[in-house]
Write a structure and sequence with these properties.
The structure is a single chain. With 419 residues, this protein is α+β, with helices and mostly antiparallel strands. The protein folds into two domains: 192 residues, RNA polymerase sigma factor, region 2, helix turn helix motif (Rna Polymerase Sigma Factor, Chain: A); 209 residues, 2-Layer Sandwich (BirA Bifunctional Protein, domain 2). It is built from 15 helices and nine strands. A seven-stranded mixed beta sheet has the order 1-4-5-9-8-7-6, with helices on both faces. A two-stranded antiparallel ribbon has the order 2-3. A hairpin with a 3-residue loop joins β6 and β7. The longest helix is centred in the middle third of the chain and has 28 residues.
């Protein structure tokens, strides 16, 4: 407990190594507890990640560092409650997925494996809530009864009694199967690094006078009648693959199901389709993550994006819309349409470049949604146009403020020199 107190105290003053150690210590506890509430390992992992991010932001509110386990559990529960109320149940639960080993067993072996796994998970689900929670915590990663008691804020004797009761219900053979099954779902060793990546990068949108936020406010005010939508930073990889092709080489891959978002277009089109299609005018902003960094590119940078679905021939066309926005974000700078590239859902997109320091500098990309996706949205592509465009906010800020290194925006005076 003294070690935990020291880690919490250090994390409070911005020591990311200390907080990473806390994450490594509690990651499977958070996952197990969330699973006992949600009954879905995918959603449980989402809840665990969100809980750690929230815990770091709220650390200053924790008066007694030794009370971290119980305090953190309440944060996990709130994230689970948010997921439940938000009905985020569109993903396929891990308990319904059968991972086929490379050896490719025959159909009978696959069916048997599925049945055994389902029986184990059913046995866990059928335990009373208090026994299910203790059992999941105990078997997922070898947490002691004392650890579990501190996390659940109850006496060790109560933990022991509930474990004894659950073992009696499960019986000896099933207990070992539960132990084996839960261990397969423990979080990977690089989970703390993922949390660290999300936390260490500055959040310009939360800094009132940051140039990136100011540009977003300009973009947003220009489309005052648009709906603002938000997306998680960790996304289902299948969304980005729905239009065919592979993930780009710069993708941050979390696991075989999730990636860090690296563009918004796929997310915007996916949400549009899931919401029933039809005309819409939506904007979004946030960080996109790519494993590359230079003087003009960041590992994470911000985009402002628009998806505009309207009757053909009404309002501005794609080129006019992009130029109108550019005139607001970069007044006085000449803009040209550059080369085109292939892009998911849009087919061809065009880069837009601003004339800066005597050279053309890319600041935006724009394209029209393919007819096939417009049709899937229930619209006639001859009568409706769906266009999307995105501006790189840091790159626009470089041009507007004549700053030659994009990393400047993540340092003082633009970002406070504290946690």
């Amino acid at each position: 407990m003294d070690e935990l107190k020291t880690l919490v105290d250090q994390a409070k003053i911005g020591d990311m190594d200390a907080f990473s150690a806390i994450v490594g210590r509690f990651q499977d506890m958070a996952l197990a507890y969330a699973y006992s509430v949600l009954g879905d390992f995918h959603l449980a992992e989402d809840a665990a990640q969100e809980a750690f991010l929230q815990a770091y932001r709220d650390l200053d509110a924790l008066r007694e560092p030794a009370a971290f386990p119980g305090w953190f559990r309440r944060i996990v529960f709130k994230r689970c409650d948010r997921i439940t109320r938000g009905k985020r149940l569109s993903t396929v639960p891990l308990d319904s997925v059968v991972e086929i080993p490379a050896a490719s067993p025959g159909p009978e072996a696959i069916v048997e494996s599925r049945e055994i796994r389902q029986n184990v998970l059913d046995a866990i689900r059928n335990l009373p809530q208090n026994e299910r929670t203790v059992t999941t915590l105990f078997y997922i990663n070898g947490y002691t009864q004392k650890d579990i008691a501190a996390f659940l804020e109850m006496p060790v004797t109560t933990v022991n009694n509930r474990l004894h009761s659950s073992r009696t219900r499960l019986k000896e053979r099933m207990v070992q199967m539960v132990n084996d099954e839960l261990k397969t779902h423990s979080l990977s060793d690089d989970f703390p690094e993922r949390i660290r990546l999300l936390l260490e990068m500055p959040r310009p949108m939360e800094i009132a006078d940051h140039p990136v936020r100011q540009l977003w406010q300009t973009f947003k005010s220009y489309f005052a009648d648009a709906e603002v939508v938000e997306f998680d930073e960790v996304c289902e990889r299948d969304i980005f693959l729905a239009d065919g092709g592979d993930l780009p080489p710069f993708t941050y891959i979390i696991n075989d199901r999730q990636v860090m978002r690296y563009e918004f277009t796929s997310l915007m089109v996916d949400k549009w389709l899931r919401d029933g299609g039809g005309p819409c005018k939506r904007i979004t902003t946030g960080r996109v993550f790519r494993e590359e960094e230079s003087e003009t590119r960041l590992i994470a940078h911000h985009q402002a994006e628009m998806l505009w679905v309207k009757e053909a021939g009404t309002g501005p066309n794609l080129d006019e819309a992009v130029r109108d926005v550019a005139n607001r974000l970069l007044p006085g700078f000449e803009l040209r349409r550059g080369d085109s590239i292939r892009f998911p859902f849009l087919g061809d997109i065009w880069h837009y470049e601003a004339l800066w320091r005597g050279s053309w500098f890319r600041v935006a990309g724009a394209g029209v949604v393919k007819d096939e996706w417009v049709t899937k949205a229930g619209l006639n592509p001859k009568k409706y146009t769906a266009m999307g465009f995105a501006f790189g906010l840091e790159r626009c800020a470089m041009v507007a403020l004549d700053i030659d290194d994009i990393r400047t925006f993540w340092k003082p005076p633009y970002v406070p020199d504290n946690r």
